[in-house]
Design goal:
alpha+beta; two-stranded antiparallel ribbon; 2 strands
């Protein structure tokens, strides 16, 4: 899937796309924790993405 096929138009959609990507990667045995350097050429900014695992919230009783 590329951004041309399914454009992201809000932060909520970006969060959903990132969540889906991380879950697919994790389920395929990829260690998703760490830093990822995203170089994008001269037309777009570069980003550094850091992924860390966080503790789940306690379920409410």
């Amino acid at each position: 899937m590329t951004s041309e096929e399914n454009p992201v138009a809000s932060k909520a959609e970006l969060n959903a796309e990132l969540k889906a990507l991380l879950i697919r990667s994790y389920e395929n045995g990829i260690d998703v924790e760490g830093a990822f350097e995203c170089r994008n050429g001269v037309d777009h900014p570069d980003w550094d993405v850091i992924v860390t695992e966080v503790q789940k919230n306690e379920p409410s009783e």
